[in-house]
Each structure stands twice: as C-alpha cells, then as structure tokens.
Amino acid sequence: MIDMMLVNVRKLNMDTVLKIVVMTGFACFFLLTMQNGTVQLYVHPRIIPYMKFGAAAFILISLVLLKELFKPRKRKIRLSRYSVFLIPLLLFLAVPPKTADTGSISLGGMNKSRSSIKSSQDLNSEAGIQENLPSEEGAVNSPAGIPYRDVPKLKLENGIIVMNDQNYVQWLQELYENLEKYDGKRIEVIGFVLKDKEFNENQFVPARLIMACCAADAQPIGLLCTYGKSSELKKDAWVKVSGTISRGEFKNEVMPVIIADVVEKAEKPKIDYLYPY
Amino acid sequence: MKIQIELFTGFLSSGKTSLINQLLKSRLYDGERIVIFQCEAGEEELLEEGTGEKNIFVKRLGKDERFSAEYIKAAVKKYMPHRIIIEQNGMSRLEELLLELENREVRKQCGINSIVHVVDCRSFDMLMNIVGSNLIEKLSESDLVVFNHAAGIKKERMEGLKRTVKVLNKSAQVAFIDTPEDFSKALEDGIIYTEDMPSFLSKPSDKLMGVFFVLILAYFLFNVFRMLNAENISLDFSGFQVFITIFASILMQALPFLLIGVLISSVIQIFVTRDMVAKYFPKNKIFSFGAAMIAGVFFPVCDCAIVPVASRLVKKGVPLPAAVTFLLAAPIVNPVVLVSTMYAFPQEPAIAFYRLYLGITIALAAGLTFQLFPEEEQVQLEGTVSVLCGCAYCTENGTDKGLIDRVTSVLKHAAEEIFDVGRFLIAGALLTSILQMAIPKEVLSELGSSPTLSLLVMMATAFVLSVCSSSDAFIARSFAGQFSMGSIMGFLVLGPMLDIKNILMLWGSFKKRFVIKLVFVVVGLSFAVLSVFSILLFGV
Questions:
Q1: Domains delineated in chain B
Q2: pTM for this one?
C-alpha cells in the first residue's frame, strides 16, 4: 500500500526543474520580444527596463536553484502548481502578438475615444497637474532610451498638416481645440480603416491605436473622414488619406472632419501603436 | 527493484520506535529482509524478531557516531536487504541525513520511499518554541506526519495542528493516532496514505483555473463553430491571438513588479526575525496606531505575508485594534505598491496618492471600530503556531550563516513565493483578458454606468482575483476603460486589504468570529468611504 502511494525518488528534483523551466522560460520570452521588437505590441516602452530587471532576476534565481537540482527533496510534485505558469508561457511563445483590432475594442464612435482622452486630462487638471499639451520642450526620453514622448512643435509642412507617429496625438488635440484656425487646411494622415454602425455610408475613420500601458488598454483614435467611396474601403486596411479639414458634426457635436479627395493604400507602420503618455 | 529506505524522525519519546515496531509487526513487509539503523536509543526497544518471515537486522549507533553513507553501503553488501529503516532523533538535521543518502553509490542501489515524522500532540507547542526551526524542517520534508497521543485532543485543536503542517508542506499527509496500535490498524486499513491525497482540482484556486481554461476552450470552440457555419475553411485565430496578446501584456508589466515585491519581502523574511517587529512596535494605544499606519513603509511584504506578522504582533501584546490597522494599511503603504500604481496610471499620478490616502483612512477607521467595539475573548486560535512563512528556506533562519548563504536563501525563498502568489496574478490577468474579449461592451458599460453597482462589482472582483498588491494596479488599469475611476479605486483599495487568499490566511490563525467581523467592518467602511470619495471627486 505504502509503496503504491508514494513516489520514488528521482535523480532530478522535478520540483526544481519545473521552477527553473518556468522562470527561464519567462525570462526568454521577455528577452525575445525585446530582441525582435515585438515588445512594443504588448507594452508601453516605459515598461521595458522593468522587464529587463524581471528577466535578470528570473535568471539569477534559476542559477541559484541549479544547486538544488539534485537535492533530495522528495515531495510529491504538484504539477498543477506549475502548469498554471507553463500553459500560458507556451501559448505566449507559440502565438505571435496581434494588434487588438477594432473588432475587440470598445468604441462608441468617435465621441467615446475622444472623451476618454479628454477625461483623463480633466482628471489631471483637477488634481492640479500640468497637462502635457504640445510644448516647446525637447524630447523626453524613456528610461530605455526610446523616445516615446517626443513632443515636437506642431508645424505645417508647406501649408499641409502632416500627421505622423510623433505628432499624431498632438495634432488631434490641437485640431479639436483650435478648429477655426485650421478650417480649410490640407491634411495628410495614415491610419487603418475603422467603421462603426453609427457612421454614414460615406464615413470612416483613418484610425490609430494608442497605448497607455499595454495591449489591454489599446484605444483607437482618429478624425472622422467623409469620402464618397468609403463603402469600398476594407475594414482594417491601412490607408493614406489626403483632404481638407472642415467643421463637421457627429452626434450633435462639432468636430473636425476630413473631407477626403484621395484615399490610397498605405503601408502598415512598423509599430501599430502610438504611445502618447 | 531498488532497496527502499524509510526514514522515521521524531523527538525523544514521540513514539517513533513503537511505530516502527508496529510496522514490523504488520503484514506490509512480509517476507522482506530489513535493516534498521537506530540513531538513538529511546525507552522502547526495537523488535528484533519480526513476524511473517521477516528478517530483521538492527544496527544501533552510539552517541558519538555520525550516520554516514558508509553504513548503508556496508549493510547493503552484508545483508542485501529489501528495505532499510532509519530512525533519527529529531534534534539532528534531516538535511544532513538526506545528503548522506545522496551519495552516488547509495543512490544507485537505494531510493527513499517515505519520510515519516512522529510528534506528540501534547508537546507540539513546546517543541515549536524550543526547537522551532528543527521541527519545521521535519514537517516540511515529511510525506507523513503522525500526531501521536491524540486521545482527548479537541477537534478544533487537531484542525489547527493539521493546518500548521499544511502551511509548511501542502503535500504531506497528516494522521492522528491515539496509541501505536492505531497506527498499524490505520496502515492495514490503508487509511493513512490514502486520506486526503491532494487530487487535482481539489483546491479552490485550481478549480478557478480549471473554469478559466474551460472558458478559453469554449471561446475557442465558439470561434471555430462560427467559422464553420460561415462555410469558411480557414479558421479565425485572430481573436485568440489578440486574447493571448492582451493576456501576455498584462503579465509582462505586472511580473517584474511582483518580482520586486517578492524579492524585498524575501529579504525581510530572511533577515528580520518575526520577533524583531513585535519588539519595536509600541504598545501604547495612540503610538501603536501611528506605528500601525506607517510600519508598512519599512516592512514592504505582500498582503498575504502580512497576516502572520500581524498575528505575531497580537501575541506579543500589541493592542488588537492597532494590529488590525497594521494588517490593513501595510500592503497599501508598501512603496513597491505605490510605485507600481504610478506606473500603471502614468497620466494620473494622483491615483497612487488617493490609493494611499483612502487605504490609510479605511485601515484607521477599521482599527478604531475594533477599539470602540472591542473583542471580549481572545481572537487567535489556540495553539496555532504562526509560521512566518510556509517555506523550508526560512527555517534556515536560526542557524548562523554567512551573508552569501543568506542571499541565496533570499533568492530561493523568492522562487518559492513567486509561484505561490504568481498564480493569482495569472488567474487575474486571464480573467481580465477574457472579460475584455468575451463580454459585450454594452454589458460592461451598463455596469459601469451605475456608480454603486460598479463600485460593488469592482470590489468583488478585487476580492475574488486576490492579486498581490504589488502588481494589481495593472489589472485595475485594464478595467479603466469601462469602469469609473471611483470604482477602480474600490478595486485598488479593497484588494490589498481583503481577498480570498488573505482570508484563508486569517482563517488559519484567528477565530472565525473575528475574521467575519473584520470582513464586515472592512467591506462596510470601504464601501462608505469610497462612495463618498467618488461623489466628492468625480461627481458620480
């Protein structure tokens, strides 16, 4: 009876083996994503130094545990304790990251995504914190050295508003706040096609995703765009929109709208997300 | 078949020799050649004559003889036994014996079959006080812990003893026997060794994980079927892919902070003995409240590690109300928690401040409630040994060790703890990812639109998820899109104070009455304070 119920001693201490496998596994996963750059599809660049620390700590602990590999701690191995870590880890390694597409993101039309940016600002100002509006300050670099808070001076290029990765959020705020100033100006913007039930047939948004912390809080933002052949555009396709800014209305709210005359195919940017904060 | 080694440990007069005799008398080892090494001679004599055609050879070691691998080798050569039983006195370290058995030659021929520790119920507390680390080592390494002389011991006390063992060693079996004869009976009936074998899905956390994985599977199948209906042969993995990305991203942010938290907490557990805190904690009523609020700054351990410390404080004479305040405030004033909160809400640093402020307010209010409505009886369970930590590494505390050894212990301890608390983080991340993907946004925003309901929902979520406070801000963050800031605060403030794993710990060292009262007081106060707060600050 006794013999049946108790496990035999193995040469390797499986408990320790599993611990080392899980920890080095997570360290490898962290380092891999950093190495191939996909890390930015998961988290905000400001988290990267912490991930480096995490990977280093996991490896250090694993090294210390190596000494225990042959220790005769012969407890029954609780596989469930480790499978909780192993299964997700394997999935993370096996499944490549994917940008949260609009299908899985809460978007109550333009209103909501805009108001969510605004509300966080309201909160800031209520708490007496300076808003991070476009300023003359130079680039603020992340600890990792990746500029994510590059706040360039907003400038028209040959009289055209060119929205790019660096100034996208600033332009958006600027256009919402000083619409009169830009009414009638030419604009160029790249984004993915986002459509909503509440849009007209000739409306779409060339949207970008912003990330505040990680993929879980990705939010699409963008300018509403009127374009005659909107219905021909494929959802999620990347497009370059050229048009003019004008005063428009959506759900009884005045907002800047692009009257597009050219919508052409564009290449998907290397990093899908914008990191405004 | 290798030669089976059975280790019996126990302190003087715990009755281990009698148990071995019972084993020899039983039919279990019929027809075997058995060598017994007795590393101490107690009152009871070992049987030299077995029943059932057993050949028994007893080797007694003198007082000054140290057991070594050579003994085994010699015995194997001489007798070619089926089984070797080693009886060791509790005062010697099991570790040393196990290291001897690690000898290459020994390992080739023998394997350890079981480690049994025998302890007298009646002297358990005394032993814990005198030779604590020694006893803890035995309890955490044994497969079976036999509590001898259990006649007349109260049920509640037995539960307490069992819990103490389980905290140290989840996979150990615990048996209570009145007399040595019970042991052989239990052996023959197969009661021991089969009783409460930890089976898969027996623990609530495992069940929870099971449910989650079933949900993922269901979601996955749902996608597959949807695609099949649409007569589309290519399967749509994109939803699953997004889900994995979100799941991974939450863990990528939270794990480093959990690691920092666990490492600091391990440093404290290894370097600071449990009595040190109690020694410097003021006993004066007013001062003790003050200390209770800020002590957590200097004692940044996770919320679950704080329970044994608080229990220790009460035992050492700190007034209960102050200990309650300490218990509730410490996981929030923890600097790691505040830093991670700031990182989770980068554009709203005020959140971390509110969290601190509200946490201290509620902790103090709860403490004062216990001051105004004092507990008449003793609140701690009798005879529960509050072990600071459930791992074997902390038991190395007492021995004088060099710095390097201590640092290694810290890391080993951290490894143990990261797996204990990490699974809650994984479950939390998994659940939030599922919520993000599977629950229609309309449902969530409807929930979020009613301030009272959403506050309650977030508080309940924090309670169930039990994510360690050093990393729960990232989980909270992912709710920020759907829920009001007021209810997010509910998650951030209540989570560290009360959650499932916390309550399980409290259950182990405090009386039920007290735990229930504490839960009601904290939930009530949190709800009131947070409702007022969100009206004042956010106007909803």
A1: 3-188 (3.40.50.300), 253-538 (no CATH)
A2: 0.69
